[in-house]
Amino acid sequence: MTTPEYIREIRESGAGHRLLLLPGVTAVVVDGLGRLLLGRRADTGKWSLVGGIAEPGEQPAGTAVREVYEETAVRCVPERVVLVQMLEPITYQNGDVCQFQDITFRCRATGGEPRSADGELLEAAWFAPDALPPLEPFALDRIRRALTDEPTWFEAPAGTGDQAGS
User: Fold this and answer.
1) Checking CA distances to 101, which of 23, 24, 60, 94 falls within 20 to 30 Å?
2) C-alpha pair distances (Å), 106 with each of 28, 42, 83, 111
3) Residue 161 above 70 pLDDT?
């Protein structure tokens, strides 16, 4: 993942490696044949859903559209919010600490052929839901939720007795 310029500026202006809470999106992109768009990440070599960090002033759905196109050259339209979740903090090799609030969108592909468009991915491709490459639980959960008509998932506040809300 390439660190956006505005985050580098925040870190250089005094935040250093301290925890930054960042808005992130994940896109579950489905084509007309029901296939899923995945990218094989350049940093880990693993297959993954496409996602990224919102830019200042950018709406989350716009972030999903931008990230999918920048990384895979596929055009898409967000159809619904699948889930909203605060992820666990991550410490990167350089010592930077981030915590992402992920909004996952189900998106419909509208054009383009998948390819590695910006160097963040080694490759991009369509996969049938029953023929996916190995994926992390993060991606598998989002795909499962996106392929159902369940309401938007979120974790209920502590102490409410609910496991999840809609």
Assistant:
1) 94
2) 5, 24, 10, 16
3) no
| Interior angle at CA 123, CA 132 and CA 73, nearest 5 | 105
- Single out the residue of 25, 23, 24, 30 nearest to residue 144, CA to CA: 30
Contacts of 156 (CB under 8 A, 6+ apart): 162, 163, 164, 165
pLDDT tens track for 16-30: 999 999 999 999 999
28-144-128-38 Cα dihedral, nearest 10 degrees: 30
Sequential DSSP letters for 107-152: EEEEE------SSSEEEEEEE-TTSPPP--HHHHHHHHHHTS-PPP
C-beta of residue 81 within 8 angstroms of C-beta of residue 105:
yes
**What pTM did the predictor assign?**
0.91
Q: Which of 73, 49, 41 is nearest to 144 (CA)?
A: 49
Instruction: Tell me whether strands 20-30 and 50-53 are parallel, antiparallel or unpaired.
Output: antiparallel
How far apart (Å, rounded) are the C-alpha atoms in residues 1 and 137?
Answer: 19
Tell me which residue of 106, 142, 96 sits closest to 4, measured CA to CA.
Answer: 96
